[in-house]
Specification:
By secondary structure, the chain is of the alpha/beta class. Helices cover about 30% and strands about 30% of the residues. It is built from 8 helices and 14 strands. It has a 6-stranded mixed sheet, with helices on one face. A 6-stranded mixed sheet has the order 7-8-9-10-13-14. The chain is globular, with a radius of gyration of 16 Å.
């Protein structure tokens, strides 16, 4: 499984393409902005897009959804708890003075423990609320598409509307118990590993001590 990404938009968000060389199929995770650059990444990889998976619905993670669906009419999947945020994304963008193409509603839902199949490889959906009520991460073989749960040296904000610091702590405890070798591809910033964050991330220090 290949993981490619481009960093896009005013919030410097990482938009990911998961692809399989053998089947030439792929999925996009969190296409946040600059749809032309994301589409160019898909074209350069030479894959057939099968779906769009969303870790959560903040505007910087869904801003290119509508434009990409216009070119690749694939299903968009989102945890239902984030649907209110998704539907208000254009209003949030207006507060920042950003242009935004409000996407139509998702085509399907994501649930905790759900298995998603890409070219024979399984990705498990883990519900990790805190930054957003419907935030999820996608766990594949040796990799985690982590959205805004965990960053190199930091974590996602919990002072936003519908964020919940207590639930964030519970979600961080979940990932802290995962394989330390798991490579985390976050929504912002460089890749890291669970092990590195347990050693160096001040927000995970309590779990390292345990």
């Amino acid at each position: 499984m290949n993981v490619r990404w481009v960093t896009v938009g005013a919030f410097q968000e990482n938009s990911y393409l998961l692809s399989d060389d053998a089947s030439r199929t792929g999925v996009l995770v969190d296409p946040g902005a600059e749809a032309d650059r994301i589409l160019a990444m898909v074209d350069a990889a030479g894959v057939r897009l099968e779906a769009i998976w969303l870790t959560h619905a903040h505007l910087d993670h869904i801003g290119a959804v509508q434009a990409i669906r216009g070119v690749h009419p694939v299903p968009v999947l989102l945890h239902p708890a984030d649907l209110p945020i998704y539907r208000r994304a254009s209003q949030q963008a207006a507060m920042y003075g950003l242009p935004f193409d409000q996407p139509g509603d998702p085509d399907g839902t994501l649930e905790d423990g759900q298995s998603l199949v890409l070219a024979g490889g399984d990705f498990r959906v883990i519900h990790t609320p805190g930054h957003a009520p419907g935030h999820v991460v996608f766990i594949g073989e040796g990799v985690m598409l982590g959205g805004d749960l965990l960053f190199a040296g930091s974590i996602g904000r919990t002072d936003l509307p519908l964020s919940d610091p207590a639930r964030m702590e519970e979600s961080l405890a979940k990932v802290a118990a995962m394989d330390p070798a798991l490579v985390v591809y976050p929504g912002h910033g460089p890749p890291t590993t669970i092990g590195d964050e347990l050693q160096t991330n001040p927000f995970l220090s309590e779990f390292h001590a345990a």
